Amino acid sequence: MGAFAQRPPRVFLSAGEASGDLHGAGFVRALKELRPDVRVACLGGTMLRNAGAEVLADNKEIAVVGLTEVLRHAKDIFNAWKRIRNHIVRQRPDLIVLIDFPDFNFLLARLARRCGMKILYYVSPQVWAWRSGRVRTLKRVVDEMAVILPFEVDFYRRHGMAVRYVGHPLLDAVRNAPPRDEALTRYGAADGSLLIGLLPGSRQSEVRLVFPVLIEAARRLRERMPGLSFIVPAAPTLAPEPIRSALAEAKLPARVVSGDTYGVIRACDLIVTVSGTVTLEAALLDTPMIIVNRVSRLSYTLGRDLIRVRYVGLPNLIAGRGVVPELLQQEARADIVCERVLDFLRDPALPAAQRRAFAGIRERLGQPGVARRVATMALRMLEP
């Protein structure tokens, strides 16, 4: 243990979003099982705190997407950055672990590199999808990449980076999901009516832009099919009360659930969701879905020419084809969402085709035990 003969190893982990909080928590638990004396400080949330990490900055403060949203929350982001920067400079962690969240984490990586620290990037930013020139920055400041999508390995190897495919951490996470019968007992309608999940995202900016569309689509669906039931699993980065208030204002009866997203998704016959990690979670839970996504007009205008992939949904990216419908920007309208949901509810062949594709996606994601594999990488990097 040479380097740590005088003190326990110190790690700083940066997880700026709800999915990073989930993956980071699994990593911290595995790391502490292998090295119980390790000390972990982080940018994170409730799950990382419960896993034993010291949360220096709460990711609720900075979980935004899009240029205009970042500008709106600039003060919160700067305050979080200042606390983290001071910790890095004064405490000198032995290893920095970054989880996705590229714009913030790239700044952090540059600081850590200037301070001579080792850097492990776990869960690659989607540089292969847009702004691919950022890979040059990664090559300059990151020691190793632990990637969770199979096609990412070739991308980073082409750029001369040290990379390992560890499998997808959701394979471990969804194992704790309740079986469908149990989920239906918790959340299913007493009369057995179809249950539709509305998932507006984990960031305030997503909720502001997407949730009104989902609510209006649900109101139209109830007019067309009065027996439908609706449920909203609130992400851990969001307070449930504003969600309940928006539903009440729209006079849409819908149950809001906190702390059991997997149980809710498992119980649903169909979910309508923003893009992001939750789409892959739903695929692994075998729940059919439709993706609806919007960003501000300025963010879309500035970003559209930088995108290099055909799809935004992870199931579609992994499958290499349009398994899940994507209603983006101008198509993210309540009337269009309503019609697509009705298509799925009226034609059993559509959800059945998705479920067949989901089985193929699961096979491509590797084996469980991801968090322990990444923790082993981290411990190796901690050695002199």
TrEMBL record:
Keyword terms, alphabetized: Glycosyltransferase, Lipid A biosynthesis, Lipid biosynthesis, Lipid metabolism, Transferase
GO cellular component terms, A-Z: membrane
Enzyme Commission (EC) number: 2.4.1.182
Superkingdom classification of source: Bacteria
Record's catalysed reaction(s): a lipid X + a UDP-2-N,3-O-bis[(3R)-3-hydroxyacyl]-alpha-D-glucosamine = a lipid A disaccharide + UDP + H(+)
Keyword 4Fe-4S: no
SUPFAM superfamilies the record matches: UDP-Glycosyltransferase/glycogen phosphorylase (SSF53756)
Keyword Transferase: yes
Molecular function (Gene Ontology), one example: phospholipid binding
GO terms under biological process: lipid A biosynthetic process
Metabolic or biological pathway: Bacterial outer membrane biogenesis; LPS lipid A biosynthesis
Catalytic EC class: transferase
Reported function: Condensation of UDP-2,3-diacylglucosamine and 2,3-diacylglucosamine-1-phosphate to form lipid A disaccharide, a precursor of lipid A, a phosphorylated glycolipid that anchors the lipopolysaccharide to the outer membrane of the cell.
Protein name per UniProt: Lipid-A-disaccharide synthase
Organism: Syntrophobacter fumaroxidans (strain DSM 10017 / MPOB)
